[in-house]
Write a structure and sequence with these properties.
Layout (H helix, E strand, L loop, with lengths): L4 H14 L12 E7 L10 H14 L8 E7 L10 E5 L5 H18 L8 H7 L9 E5 L11 H6 L17 E5 L7 H17 L3 E5 L2
Parallel strand pairs: 1-2, 1-4, 4-5, 5-6
Antiparallel strand pairs: 2-3
Helix pairs in contact: 1-3, 2-3
């Protein structure tokens, strides 16, 4: 039997509801937003060891959440790809943390086989279009090699240091959040990874958020 991405979401959702996890639009609780870069350059899609390592980092982050906090998983890549409009939402309840952990791990580990790799990476556009509840001290985890490839910057120029990321505009609502890149620079030289780290640290801190990076 073949499972599509939508069927996996539906099955996970149904199973979680039976275990007491509800879908919620509650905005007061802290949110753990997991952005999964599904562009062609991200080793998460093609390297099983890399996807496992990234998934473990996300599961570890669940320990920072309390009852009522929410987990949102969303893909990011090409700007207008319809599959990036879908997301998985889970809410931490009193006795379901282990169930959330297992469901989240299953979703992230099977996702590479469910999505079609996209041709660009629009992280800057995502940050400008979404407000991840930062006033509650929320966390944004970005599973990505962090190579922005969009209308804002040429990926080769970014990697070489010849072009910088633009400064965050007025609609980037990250103040109060922690933004953690996992896999930044994966598959690139150490020099390129260092260049990417500096570029994103500058961008995230200018936006008023705390920057962290895990290089795998």
């Amino acid at each position: 039997m073949t499972f599509t991405r939508k069927s996996i979401v539906a099955l996970i959702g149904a199973g979680l509801l039976s275990l007491g996890i509800a879908f919620s639009n509650h905005v007061e609780a802290k949110t753990l937003t997991v952005l999964v870069d599904v562009s062609k350059s991200n080793p998460y899609l093609t390297n099983e060891a890399m996807s496992k390592a990234m998934t473990l980092q996300v599961i570890d982050a669940l320990s920072t959440l309390s009852q009522g906090d929410e987990v949102i998983v969303q893909t990011v890549g090409s700007l207008h790809a319809s599959q990036n409009l879908e997301n998985l939402r889970l809410v931490i309840k009193r006795h379901n943390r282990q169930s959330v952990s297992k469901a989240l791990a299953k979703y992230l580990l099977t996702l590479p086989k469910q999505v079609e790799a996209q041709g660009s990476t629009n992280l800057i556009a995502w940050f400008g279009r979404h407000a991840p509840n930062c006033e509650a001290g929320s966390i944004v985890i970005v599973l990505s090699d962090a190579i922005e490839a969009s209308e804002y910057v040429d990926s080769a120029s970014l990697l070489s240091g010849k072009q910088a990321l633009p400064e965050p505009h007025q609609y980037v609502a990250l103040k109060g959040c922690t933004v953690r890149f996992i896999g930044l620079g994966a598959g690139r030289s150490d020099k390129e990874a260092h260049t990417l780290r500096q570029a994103w640290q500058r961008y995230i801190e200018l936006a008023g958020a705390e920057f962290k990076a895990v290089l795998l």
